[in-house]
Amino acid sequence: MLDAEAIERTAHRLADAHITARPLAGMEALGSDAPTTADEGYAVQSRLRAITGTTVGAWKVGATSDAAQAVLGVDAPFLGGIGTTRIVPSGHEFVVDEWFAGNPAIEIEVGLRPTTDLTEVPDEALELANLVEVIPCIEIVDSRFGAIIGLPGPCLIADNGVASALVVGEVLDLDAEAVRKLGSMSVRLVIDGRDPIEGTASMALGHPLRALATAAQTAINLNRPIRAGEVVSTGTCTGLTPVEHGLTVTGSVGSASVAASFV
Question: Which of 219, 148, 154 is nearest to 2 (CA)?
Answer without folding.
Answer: 154
